[in-house]
């Protein structure tokens, strides 16, 4: 009976005009659309259409998910608190070699390395469709390199591009995903400036461009100033975006805010009772950072469980001045202190809600949260 009812509903929806079905699909999460592809050929053709894919992505910019790589790939909807697990793609194995990822339009630019040979590899991965493609270097990738992903004025026509650069070696390359080819950038703007990227910052892609926390020495008085370094994939030049507040003794996390801005979360390493959240203006010609809100509470958790472990929190700044974070922590359990993965909601008064999603003990836990990211699931195909 349930099967017959389901078939009737499917037949009824399929009989609607295609433009009406399209409007319905624009309101559906990407995960639901993926499950709908085998239903009928007309739906499958629509869901695979690039115009539909990018319009759906445009209408769902805030459909955020938390992605965490541990012993498995874990994806959580921070609103519904539902979580699913899938195996880590064999291309990214072994587990402890994953170094960093950058998100753009539902695609993850993955960097991982062989600890013994110190060779680095890159790949593009769509966690929703589970498709992954390796990127071959022009010569070789190095552990000192930084990477970014973005696109020019027309990503539909020009496709995605990948930036590789080393602020120590002073070399810069662009990879065109459509042609699978690298080319060297010569005389690039800001290439001779005395700046270094903050080694803890893997970069954030916003509206097709890349952004990092960086430092430079002011030669007059030898002071170090912090700023946002950007890369424009249209002009293929670095940008001095704006100054950021100093954060010498604080853990810092740069992220996207509201789709077209940046957020910077700061928490003192020694005194975690204070969290400052800064946000930028829209990323246009003139950009500035202002403090959005401050949380002062002695019961605040340390969002980075240990500076000696690669356990950066997965977080985003939500409406009504709230922090939603998924990170490691510890709880007392007799004489043992198990590692827990906890979902926090933090507002201006402190922790308003918390939920333990996992608990591990040393004898049954192979590693910590090696990589965590906020990403928007999409049906964007790999180039």
TrEMBL record:
Query: Which Gene3D superfamilies would you find in this protein's record?
Result: 1.20.1280.50
The record's annotation in Pfam families points to: F-box, FBA_1
Task: Enumerate the SUPFAM superfamilies for this protein.
Answer: F-box domain
**Domain F-box spans what residues?**
10-57
Which domain of life, per UniProt? Eukaryota
PANTHER family in the record:
BNACNNG10540D PROTEIN (PTHR31672), F-BOX PROTEIN CPR30-LIKE (PTHR31672:SF13)
What's this protein's name? F-box domain-containing protein
> Source species, please?
Brassica carinata (Ethiopian mustard)
């Amino acid at each position: 009976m349930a099967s017959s009812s389901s078939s009737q509903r499917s037949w009824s929806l399929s009989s609607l005009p295609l433009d009406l079905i399209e409007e319905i699909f624009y309101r559906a999460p990407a995960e639901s659309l993926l499950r709908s592809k085998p239903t009928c050929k007309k739906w499958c053709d629509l869901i695979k259409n690039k115009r539909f894919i990018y319009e759906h992505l445009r209408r769902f910019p805030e459909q955020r998910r938390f992605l965490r790589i541990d012993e498995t790939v874990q994806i959580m909807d921070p609103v519904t608190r539902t979580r699913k697990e899938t195996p880590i793609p064999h291309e990214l194995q072994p587990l402890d070699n994953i170094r960093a990822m950058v998100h753009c339009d539902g695609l993850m630019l993955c960097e991982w390395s062989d600890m013994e040979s110190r060779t680095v590899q890159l790949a593009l991965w769509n966690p929703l469709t589970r498709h992954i493609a390796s990127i071959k270097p022009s010569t070789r990738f190095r552990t000192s390199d930084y990477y970014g992903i973005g696109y020019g004025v027309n990503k539909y026509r020009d496709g995605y591009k990948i930036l590789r650069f080393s602020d120590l070696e002073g070399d810069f390359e662009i990879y065109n995903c459509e042609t699978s080819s690298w080319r060297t950038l010569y005389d690039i703007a800001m290439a001779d400036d005395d700046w270094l990227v903050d080694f803890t910052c893997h970069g954030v892609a916003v509206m097709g461009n890349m952004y990092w926390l960086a430092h430079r020495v002011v030669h007059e008085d030898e002071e170090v100033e912090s700023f946002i370094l950007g890369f424009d994939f249209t002009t293929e030049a670095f940008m001095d975006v704006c100054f950021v507040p100093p954060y010498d003794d604080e853990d810092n996390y740069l992220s996207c805010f509201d789709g077209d801005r940046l957020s910077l979360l700061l928490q003192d390493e020694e005194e975690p009772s204070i969290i400052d959240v800064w946000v930028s203006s829209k990323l246009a010609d003139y950009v500035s950072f202002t403090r959005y809100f401050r949380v002062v509470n002695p019961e605040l958790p340390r969002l980075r469980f240990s500076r000696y472990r690669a356990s950066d929190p997965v977080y985003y700044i939500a409406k009504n001045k709230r922090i939603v974070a998924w990170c490691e922590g510890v709880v007392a359990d007799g004489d043992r202190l198990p590692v827990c993965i906890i979902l926090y909601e933090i507002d201006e008064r402190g922790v308003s809600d918390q939920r333990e999603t996992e608990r591990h003990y040393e004898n049954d836990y192979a590693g910590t949260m090696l990589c965590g990211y906020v990403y928007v699931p999409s049906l964007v195909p790999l180039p």
